[in-house]
Amino acid sequence: MILTDRDILDALKEDLLVIEPAPPMEFYAPNGVDLRLDSRLSLYRDPAPGEDPVIDPARPGYRFSEAICTMADDIEIGPDGFVLDPGRLVLGWTHERVDLRPAGRLAARVEGKSSLARIGLIVHLTAPTIHAGSTGRIQLEIINLGPRPIRLRAGMKVCQLILEQTLGVPQRAYGGQFAGQRAAG
Known about the structure:
This protein has a single domain, classed as Distorted Sandwich (Deoxyuridine 5'-Triphosphate Nucleotidohydrolase, Chain A). Helix content is 11%, strand content 39%. The protein has three helices and twelve strands; from the N terminus they run αβββαββββαβββββ. A hairpin with a 2-residue loop joins strand 2 (28-29) and strand 3.
């Protein structure tokens, strides 16, 4: 069951859900809440001379966080924004920290905003799920699939959080490789 704006506000009041900083009322839609882009991005760089450019996620011992550290740099979005060229992928985070308390029986999905999708901006490739018990800023896989460059600005509305009620309380909170992930920097 998807929560309405009223249900989301009730969950916040009852401390079953935390969104910090709290979104202003105009960020709420009938069944979701807008989240903003953080000021930091991770930009992929070209392989260094002699570096193996192949990523092997099935290799024993592979860790996503280590792979990203070897192929991406963190930057701060300046006052003029960051221009995302067509076809380019960057990692971003939400400005807001989201805490889905296990007792709240909530999970969520992060979805793009239609106004941005219509110009080619995608905020997740195949990873919209925010598991029950997750806490932290939400990492975004941002890509420009449009025909023109798109300027990203810190604080812009970049995605929607859609909250769903689970049928029960999870046996354990989310503890996968992205548990407690931090924003870049």
